[in-house]
Amino acid sequence: MRESILAAAIQLFAEYGYHAAPLRDIARIAGIQAASIYHHYPNKQSLLVEIMTTYMQQLNRQIEHILSEYDEPVERLQQAITNHIHLHTRYKAEFFIIDTEIRSLEAENRLNIISLRDRYDELLQELLRDGMERGIFRQSDVKVTSYAIIAMCTEVATWFRSGGRLTVQQVIDIHCQMIMQGLLIDQEATLKQRGLS
């Protein structure tokens, strides 16, 4: 039942926005009485918090895994780009809610979600900084570079359509190539070696 309630909340929050999605409509889509929601969630805010926490934690766990499993900076970055685009195209509604509804969170909840988002930024910046220190990525402002990569990869979810002209993997390859061309010191050799040129 919790899954049905959560799925209904995701649908309505993404379509109409948090404030315009009443609990009674969430209950109707979930196929239950409005009062039954309170057996599972204390209020509407707790639904929003669970959506955001679940998917931000998943994003963070994946990049932590990439940093621990892979050592080579180019491979790490390719994996991070791949993961970000895969999650944002697979869970479009959930990440749209994360990106647009932080303003709807109450104070403490907002701080918790922002700390999860900041953690993701820090991990990507750690990956980039390591590549720069090893002389593989060109020196640039790590924060600005991380924000640019996140913005590019997140934006895919707004225009990508499954079954369209390109597959998700083709879109990932294009993004990897563009980002690597901007970052790599010895572009030509590395891109050829990785089949991205």
UniProtKB/TrEMBL annotation:
PROSITE patterns, sorted: HTH_TETR_2
DNA-binding region listed in the record: 22-41
GO molecular function, one term: DNA-binding transcription factor activity
Domain HTH tetR-type: 1-59
Keyword Transcription regulation attached: yes
Lineage top rank: taxon: Bacteria
UniProt keywords, alphabetically: DNA-binding, Transcription, Transcription regulation
InterPro entries: Homeodomain-like_sf, HTH-type_TetR-like_transc_reg, HTH_TetR, KstR2_TetR_C, Tet_transcr_reg_TetR-rel_C_sf
SUPFAM superfamilies: Homeodomain-like (SSF46689), Tetracyclin repressor-like, C-terminal domain (SSF48498)
Pfam families referenced in this protein's UniProt entry, alphabetically: TetR_C_24 (PF17932), TetR_N (PF00440)
UniProt keyword Transcription regulation, yes or no: yes
Signal peptide extent: none
Entry protein name: TetR family transcriptional regulator
Species of provenance: Reticulibacter mediterranei
